[in-house]
Amino acid sequence: MRLVILTALSIGGxxxxxxxxGFLFRRIPEKWNDGxxxxxxxxxxxxxxxxxxxxxxxxxxxxxxxVIGLGMFLGAAFLNLIDVAxxxxxxMSGIDSEDHKHNxxxxxxxxxxxxxxxHNLPEGLAAGVAFGGGDITGAFSVAIGxxxxxxxxxxxxxxxxxxxxxxxxxxxxxxxxTGLVEVIGTLIGYSAAMLSxxxxxxxxxxxxxxxxxxxxxxxxxxxxxxxxxxxxxxxMMAGFFVMIVVDRLL
Length: 250
Fold this sequence. Notes:
globular; 82% helix; mainly alpha
């Protein structure tokens, strides 16, 4: 159990390390911010496919592949519902401006952060289930992959929040919460390994759906709205490829 706790803290801590690194790049030109967001979109697309949706497909029989589609669309519908039903999501940022356009911008950024947090939960479940199954070597491989992925994920959520005017302390707290979700998921997965194994395909595809939704509905349109679409597109491809390389090396 001590090993599981240390692993959970390491997984969550990787997000915190990434967030701290993100503070080093908080004052960047708009052009390069679009490039970073494009790179982040590529990372999220690759993570959704190679880290969530394809592993979920491998966990279900061919006749139950519909479960994956169900999870993906439920994830996308969930974020869409939040986007529509929670118009005051920006209040989590500590900002309640009279500028509705600014509030809408913060809502989009926090929706992106929420997608990261949601996708962290089944990742934590996956690590916990791996340890619960008794395959320590395999569990470490899963955990290492998550740690490597979480560092850039922690970095990419900092700059957008800071540029939107969210205070550094609140920004770091929100980033910390996304890592805490993963710690909780790991402990839950280990404590209820058999149950988690049963729901893991749906949970993984649900998280993958949230990431696909946020990339297609928010990130790509945002990075293509200021004349830097070529940089954003090539950055997205670079982010996608980097995560493929990481997944291949592991």
